[in-house]
Specification:
Radius of gyration: 36 Å
Shape: globular
Largest sheet: 7 strands, mixed
Strand order of the largest sheet: 10-23-24-25-21-22-11
CATH topology of the largest domain: Rossmann fold
CATH architecture of the largest domain: 3-Layer(aba) Sandwich
Strand content: 15-25%
Number of helices: 26
CATH class of the largest domain: Alpha Beta
Structural class: alpha/beta
Number of domains: 4
Helix content: 25-40%
Amino acid sequence: MSESSNFLAEQIQADLEQGTYGGRVVTRFPPEPNGFLHIGHAKAIVVDFGLAQRFGGRCHLRFDDTNPVGEDTLYVESIQRDVRWLGYEWGEHLYYASDYFPKLFAFAERLIREGRAYVCSLSLDQIRETRGTVTEPGTPSPDRDRPVQDSLRLLREMREGKHAEGAYTVRAKIDMAHPNMKMRDPLMYRIRHAHHHRTGDSWHIYPMYDFAHGLSDAIEGITHSFCTLEFENNRALYDWFVEAIFEPPVPHQYEMARLNLSYVVLSKRKLITLVREGHVWGWDDPRMPTLAGLRRRGVPPEAVVAFVEQVGVSRADSLVDVALLDHTVRDYLNTRAPRRMGVLDPLPVTLTNIPEGEGRRIELDEWPHDIPRQGSRAVPLTRHLVIEREDFAVDPPKGFKRLTPGGRVRLRGAGLFTCEEVLTDQAGQITGLRGRLDPEGAPGPKVAGTIHWSSATAGVEARVLLVDRLFTLERPDDHPDGALAVLNPDSLVERRAVIEPALAQAPAGTRVQLERLGYFIVDEAAQSDQPPTLIRIVPLKDSWAAKASPAEPAPPPAKKDPGRKRVRKSASEALQELIEVRPEIADRLDRLEADGLSEEDAAVIGTDDGLFELYAQAVAQGADQVAVVNWIVNDLRAVTKERPLETLSLTGAALAELIALVTQGEITTAVARKVFARVIEGEGSPIQIVDRQGLRPIRDPARIEAWAAEVVQANPDKVQAYRQGRTNLRGFFVGQVMRASRGKADPAMVNRVLDRLLAG
RNA sequence: UGGGCAGUAGUUCAAUGGCAGAACACCGGUUUUUGGUACCGGGGGUUGUAGGUUCGAAUCCUACCUGCCCAGCCA
């Protein structure tokens, strides 16, 4: 990925700076070979390979083939093709999770020997029942304490195929009451008498994802393991297995939001349905969001990569507008697809001043004036032409710049055509136009429009496929009747077009712009003995269509389930229950409220032994109660979220000392925060730290004045804006002065000085 | 509902306690032998809500609201 800032790149950067992995960056792309890759996978590929590339690391391609059913070498080939198509190379780092089966088996034996795993004989249903629910703990398996030797023996028997599917599983012994359901003795192995596409019939047990994945990462020396948000809960397990077997530094998992695209479905199941029910030709149908489909449609891989890079990476669920993909495709193709002409909906035109059978070849540039590339092709100009039916209007709307009866228009590269006669049939349908072609600059009205055309006699018939979105709803899955209910009936429209001869001879895979129509690719199905097929990759932007036809009505709002009712224990109820168990808490609360704390603050401090003790100590040293509470509630708790209080070097005395420093004006609040951060790391008492670091505030009016004057002088435009009312620039000025003083200036004084200087 | 995660412009993302920005989308204009491209400009924001800490909060703390994930022997 290029230089975009995102939390994954920052993580790698931080690990590089801290030397976590000795400067190594190794990522992996781990598809399961049981389906085709789609544009959602493209995001993963660009992140996995791109980030490794950007930081001078490498990315492994590893097939996560831990479940033989549905997996096939067909998919491993198509996946490799797709990754290469996007422009990424894994070199010698092609791996299969199945290559690690022997190692994983040994790991399982080790965990059993260490009493951290066991063979369980519960049935599928029993396992489900004993797992509990999200609100109730599970119950331990009766086999949880099966003797190690028994488990070991059973494990070997399972491997050798001596037991039926479902008879036994291997489970990690973690915690059946864990609030994270993934940690309730998860399965490591299940029995499957199935043929594996690589290991054949040599195994009768296959490892589960959670057991295999992190350990496979660790085996390969992966440093950063990126996956999607739905694996967040699995991270605890990932760490459990990896840390049980490997010594640090171990790989870490980071989750990002998966890619969602408007008017598209990306779930494997729904894509299969589209194929199986015949809504599309197959996996490479140009309407499909599969990489095979995008390739067939002609979308350049570079545009897909650019698209993913522009979407960015974050942890927020989101829905990306397909218009962004269209944009990156056009942006890439504009300077790379030579121009050609073709008419999709032909209307015959006779040039009355060119004799029958007489024609000439005109040489037209392949590139418009603003693209600095050379090249031209010959285009036949004959008496009989075709133009686009919609480029002629008997009754033109306002602003119409094309042909009208008696009107004049430029035929691209050929001259100025004047429509002198409109031919119609019995039904009044327009069947053709007649008129004269004049050279450029001929007398007559100036023309506003230029239209494309093709020779009716020397042009070549072609089959053209116009591809549109597959669904009519932005979020097809949100439709109450399912995505199939909003299939777009016009997602694929076939036209008989007339194209210029130069295009008819282009080899399959050639991408061109048909002027005014869009970018097209010569389809691979094109054969010499039949009309060639062109697929439209993407239409040109059309600012006229938007103006000519009214905006489409907003899609119907997605139906939502009525909100579940929240039944939550109120804070005070919970507090009451706690007091019943621990009556001393009531006394504490009384004392705290007597000290003048709010009920909320009192509850926070009174219910936590450590915090209460800290508070009591600090107050005993004479510190102001409110200040103590603010430090504990606002600053300390930010830290104790991550690290327990006991691990911090913070005493009530130190806190009191810090507060005294602030109230006596020895240090500023901002500095006090820095000091606080050092105190909890055990770097000494506040006074020691302040003295050692020279953190006392600068109150010398002359120095502050000098800094302030400098800032004011350096930003005359901002000073003016401030004086004109943009008072939110105050933060900017204060910030600049604070920065100049490296955070040591007394902000109150800075504000006073600035007040004077900015008053004008 | 127990746990986890997330809310910044119409959309996708930046801003790492100090001026709320970019791209796409939308709307104008200039250029143009593509109603394309390029260039210029514009509208758009109570940073989910309410409190608190701070000289100063999108950013730190709290509560609430909304959405997503977890009860496969799938990955």
